[in-house]
Amino acid sequence: MAKIGNIDLGSFPLLLAPMEDVSDPPFRALCKEQGADVVYTEFISSEGLIRDAAKSVQKLDIYDKERPVGIQIFGANLDSMLQTVEIVEKSNPDFIDINFGCPVKKVVSKGAGAGILKDIPLMVKLTEAMVKHTKLPITVKTRLGWDHDSIYIHEVAERLQDVGIQALAIHGRTRAQMYKGSADWSPIAEVKNNPRITIPIFGNGDVDSAEKAVIMRDQYGLDGAMIGRASIGNPWFFKDVKHFFKTGEHLPSPPLAERVKVAKRHLEMAVAWNGEHTGVFETRRHYTNYFKGIPHFKEYRLKMVTSDTKEGVFDTFEEVLQKFG
Fold it and tell me: What's the CA gap between 308 and 6, in Å, rounded?
C-alpha cells in the first residue's frame, strides 16, 4: 500500500505526471474522473512565484475534486525555494513535489531541474531545508543521473530519504537522453529493492500501455506508475490500465461521440480557467489523440489548430461527428 505522508494511495497508484502546459486544472479534472489516483500541477518556477509572475501564480490553482494533488516547484536557490514553500502552503496542496528532473535547457542552465544532478550535495541541502520548513510532505521527481557516466540514483535516493522526503518518482532516463531512446526501469527497481529504502518509489518513462504498467508493477516491483505523454488527449488511459489490472483485457476505445463530448468539455473548462485565447491554444496538443483513428484526420486537425475561437473548434468537432459518428 503506497502512502505519501498520511495519504493512502492504495495499491499501485497511477499518477498523472506534471507536464508543462498540459497538466492544468481542466486536464487534471478529466484524468481524475477517468481513474488517475494522484495528480500534480505543472512545474512552477520558484523565481517566478517570488516575482509574482502571473503565469506562475495561476499554476497554484487547485481544486478539492483533484485531491490528492501535489504542487510541483523547481529552482536552485535556497532562499527562493524556502519562500516558495511558504507561498505554496497557502494553496493547501496535499504535498509539495520538487522537480530535480526537467531536462529543458532554460531550466537546466540555471542549475535547476535536472541541472542539479551535477551537484548532489546541493540537491540534498535544498531538500533537507524544505522538509524542515513545512509540515506538508515533500516528495521529489528526478532522473537516473546527468548522463550515462554519472548515474548516482541509488545514493541520491538514500540521501533524500534520510533528509525526510516521503516519496520518490524516478524517470528512467538521464538528462543527456532527454526523451530519446528507451527508459530503463532496472535502476529504479534496484532503488526499490534496496533494503534501506522504505518510501514509495514510483516509475516514470514510457508507460504507454496497460501491459507496460503491469510489467512495471509485477516484474520491476515498483510502488506506482507515473503517466506522462500517454495521457495527452487520452484521459481514458488511466481507466483502461485499471480495467486491465482487474481483467487482463482492454476497454474498447471510447466511441467518437464520447471523444467529442470530452474534448468539448476540456476546451470549455480551459477557456473558463484561462480565457479564450490561451484556452484554445493550450488544448491544441490534445486533438491528435482525442481523434486517433479518424481517417484523413489531418485536414480536420489543421482546422482545429488554426481556429482562434472556441466556437470555431466546436464547429470542426461537429463536422467530424457528422461525418464519422
Answer: 45
Given the residues 14, 49, 102, 232, the one annotated as active site: 102
Please give the CATH topology (third level) of the domain spanning 256-324. Answer: 1.10.1200
102 counts as catalytic: yes
Sort 109 into a burial class: Cβ within 10 Å, 0-12 / 13-18 / 19+: exposed
CATH top-level class for 2-247? alpha beta
Q: Are residues 70 and 139 in contact, defined by beta-carbon separation less than 8 angstroms?
A: yes
Of 107, 43, 52, the residue nearest 72 (C-alpha): 43
Do 106 and 113 contact (CB within 8 A), yes or no? no
Cell numbers for 273: 480557467
State the helix-helix crossing angle for 310-324 and 256-274, rounded to 10 degrees: 180
| DSSP state for residue 76 in the 8-state scheme | S
Q: Extract the residue ranges of the chain whose pLDDT is less than 50.
A: none
Asked if residues 227 and 17 have their Cβ atoms less than 8 Å apart, the reply is: yes
Quick one: cell of 126?
535544498
Report the SS3 class of residue 252: coil
Which cell is 43 given? 512545474
Q: For the beta carbon of residue 243, count every other beta carbon within 10 angstroms.
A: 16
Q: How far apart are CA 171 and CA 169, in angstroms?
A: 7
This prediction has a pTM of: 0.96
Q: What cell does 32 get? A: 481524475
Grid coordinates standing for 110? Answer: 540555471
DSSP assignment of 33-62 equals HTT-SEEEPPPEEHHHHHTT-HHHHHTT--
With vertex at residue 283, the alpha carbon angle to CA 205 and CA 204, rounded to the nearest 5 degrees, is 10
CB atoms < 10 A from the CB of 67, how many? 15
Q: Which amino acid is at 182?
A: S
Helix and strand counts by DSSP (H, E) for the chain:
15, 11
pLDDT of residue 135: 97
pLDDT digits (tens, 9 = 90+) for 178-198: 999 999 999 999 999 999 999
Rounded distance between C-alpha atoms, residue 130 and residue 189, angstroms: 27
